[in-house]
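quick one, 311 residues, struct below
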Amino acid sequence: MLDTILYPIEWVVAWVMYGSHAVFTTLGMQDGPGWAWVFSIVALTVVIRIALIPLFFKQIKASRGMQMMQPELQAVQKKYKGKTDPASREAMGRETMELYRKHGTNPMASCLPILLQSPIFFALFRVLNNLQGIADGTHNAIGPIDQQIAGDIETSSLFGAQLSDIFRTTDSMTSRVVVICLIVLMSATMFFTQRQLTMKNMPKAALEGPMASTQKMMLYILPVIFLISGINFPVGVLIYWVISNLWSMGQQFYTIKKMPAPGSEAERLLKEKQARKAAAKGAIEASPEPEPQKPVGQRQQPKRKNRQKRR
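---
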């Protein structure tokens, strides 16, 4: 069942990597084993993230809806606080769902990019994991990745670590050091990306309540999960996640700077910046006219008025 679902995605992943490698070799990079295959994984990541841009903006809209509805959601929670009877719980659930519909959002909105990347992640994992079998003829080719190309990809390396190396199975100390560095980078970039979104682009109301506590908890849990599970990922998959997280960080930085959420710290900073620019522009436009030039030469003496003669 899993093979049937993932094979079309594996086929697309294989073709994107193969096509990217062809572009890099045309530009002058070495054919066969080498950095061109490393950059083909980077290109695969970029292609996927560009394809996900419309969903990224949909995620932003949904996330802002979640932020804007926090005061109303807290009011509903306060209204039914302490009420555990079935009728009250049903009414609370109904009013909460009505708020989600009103603001056009849902609790899973912030997880969309990760969820949509999961099949691609597993497909890339399987492609890289099957390289050795394809190279020695025990596995069938995947798209354009035949026996010879699989051997080239498998023996391509990043600072001495082959793309198919896994920390748990490799005996190379060099590979293990590279894998550990990539795992730390993957977890750190994920943490800072989530922290940037949570701390700078959320209004004060969204940073309070049970949902905010859950988001803060996930801020630490997800990086830890990836930090632990990273020992099972091939080097190529770790490269994919590091580049994907860096893309997310840059995309969010631009969005927060140009289109901050209403009521957030980022919006306050943007308004202050705009006010400073407006004040500076107004000062330039309202600059006083230069004083008229004073006459040069001998100073004219004031004339004395004739005093009235005494009688």
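The radius of gyration is 32 Å.
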